[in-house]
Design brief:
193 residues, alpha+beta, 27% helix, elongated
Length: 193
């Protein structure tokens, strides 16, 4: 049985208390681990939504916090203005200067990035790019779009707090020295102010 299923079982009483009674029969009557696995994803998302709305009991919140400390689940769902420090980004890039746009493995291990999801006040910054150089806005839940500097480098940054991951797609225009694109997956290292 997976750790997330175990967490759903531990949180089952709070699901009922958080107004999710319609899901209780689906979990209670599941006849196989596979059925529990299929239903647990939905239940787990509802538990995280209940947490975001402040509907979890202190006991359930303690269980969820302990699961986060042990790495069973990632950081809580963001609320308006949530901020994350992201590092250990790796993935693939295709750049003109390197093999004429042929994809190659890429990584950014020595730079941390600050990502703030906050509607029209969203931002990204890193040691090699200042937040004031970017114009960002939230375009979907936990997803921001940024355009940076006079070179018009654009990023789409998707935050997956329950998984502890951030995916960044960067496009460098043709006149940029790094003309091409990158898709990198990074780890959420911590929250920030």
């Amino acid at each position: 049985m997976s750790k997330k299923i175990l967490l759903v079982v531990l949180l089952f009483p709070s699901i009922l208390c958080a107004g999710q009674e319609e899901l209780a029969p689906a979990i209670k009557e599941a006849r196989s681990e596979r059925e529990v696995e299929e239903n647990s994803a939905l239940v787990f998302e509802r538990v995280l939504e209940a947490e975001r709305r402040g509907l979890l009991s202190p006991e359930t919140q303690a269980i969820l916090d302990e699961a986060r400390r042990k790495g069973i689940v990632g950081a809580p769902l963001p609320q308006r203005g949530d901020c994350y420090i992201v590092g250990y980004q790796k993935g693939y890039s295709a750049k003109h200067y390197k093999n004429n746009y042929e994809p190659f493995p890429d990584k950014v291990s020595d730079v941390t990035v600050k990502v703030r999801v906050a509607g029209d006040r969203s931002e990204t910054s890193s040691s090699d790019r200042d937040a004031s150089a970017s114009r960002c806005r939230e375009i979907a839940s936990n997803t921001i779009f940024c355009v940076a500097g006079s070179m018009r480098v654009s990023d789409i940054v998707a935050v997956y707090p329950t998984e502890g991951k951030v995916i960044t797609t960067t496009v460098y225009p043709e006149h940029h020295p790094f003309a091409g694109a990158s898709l990198l997956v990074g780890d959420i290292l911590s929250r920030c102010n």
